[in-house]
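Next comes the chain:
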Amino acid sequence: MSTLAHTMMTPARTADAGLAGPGELDRYPYAEAPAADRVGPPAWESADPELGRVGRRAAGSRGRGLHGQLVQQLGQMIVSGDLGADRPLVPEEIGQRFEVSRTVVRESLRVLEAKGLVSARPNVGTRVRPVSDWNLLDPDIIEWRAFGPQRDDQRRELTELRWTIEPLAARLAAGHGREEVQQRLADMVEIMGHAMVQGDALTFSRADAEFHSLLIQVGGNRMLEHLSGIVSAALQVSGGPVTGCDRPNEASLAHHGRIVDALATGDGAGAEAAMRQLLIVHPEVERVVPAPREH
C-alpha cells in the first residue's frame, strides 16, 4: 500500500466557517419580538433536553467549539421542524436556554443566516425562514436533513443529483488526466480495498469521499467543482444503502477500479459507464433513478 496520509481523507466541516468580523457582532442586538409573537414557551422547551446545556458539553464535540455546537443544534431543530417557519428567535432566550454567551449566539445566528435558515431584520428580529429559502446544497443542511424527518426525501434527492453530476464528471476527468491525480485516485482505491478486508467501514468511506470529490475537481469544469462538497456530504450521511458507495463490497471496489483504469487511458465513455454502474450497484437505486434513454 502506498504511503498516503489518511488525514487528507477527513472532510472539512462548514458550520464553523465565517466567524463575525470586527463590528459585525452588533448585527443582532435587535429588539425582542412583540409579546404577541411569543405567547407560550419557546419552541425549544419541548425539544430533547439533551440539545440544551451546550456550555456543559465536552469542548470540541464533533471537533466544534461552543459556537459550532450551537449552530449544529439550532440548525437541527430548524430543519426537523422543532423551530417552525417564522418562529421568532430571541438571542437572550437562546443564550439562557443553551447557557452560552450573547457573542456565541450572535455568531451562530450569523452562520445560520448565511445558510438561509434564518433572517435578521432591524425592529423585527431574527426569524426562521421557510424551506424554500434554505440553501439545500449546503453540506450541513444536507446532513441535518439526512438525520431528520426528511431523511428519505434527502437521500432520494442526493442520489438523483449524484446521478446527474458524477457520470459527466468522470467523462470530463478522462480528458484532464495528470499523473499525480491518477496516482491519488489509485491510492484511494487501494485504501478502500485494504479497509474492506479489515472491516474498517470508516476508512473506506473517507477514502471513497476523497475519490469522488477529487474526480469532480479535476474535470476542468469550475461549476461542477463547486458541487464536490455536495457529493462528499452525500457520501457521509447514513441510513440504508442507496448507491454502491454506501457500504464496502467487492462490486463497489471493482467499479472504482474500472473508473481509474478508464481515466488512465483517456477513455471518457468508459469512465462514465463505470460510474453509472457504480451508482446502481444496489437495486434500490433503479427505482429511484431511471436508466438513461437510448438515442
About this structure: The CA atoms of residues 68 and 164 lie 32 Å apart. The two ends are 43 Å apart (CA to CA). The chain has twelve helices and three strands.
